[in-house]
Amino acid sequence: MSAWIVCGAALLGLGLPPVIWGAASGPLARRILAQNTGSTVVALAFLLMAQGYGRPSYADLSLVLALLGPVGTLVCVRLLADDLRSGAPRGATAVTIACVASAVAVTVAVCAAASPGRATVKLVVIGALVAVGNVIASRALVTGVVDEADAAQ
Question: Residue 91 domain-assigned?
Answer without folding.
Answer: yes
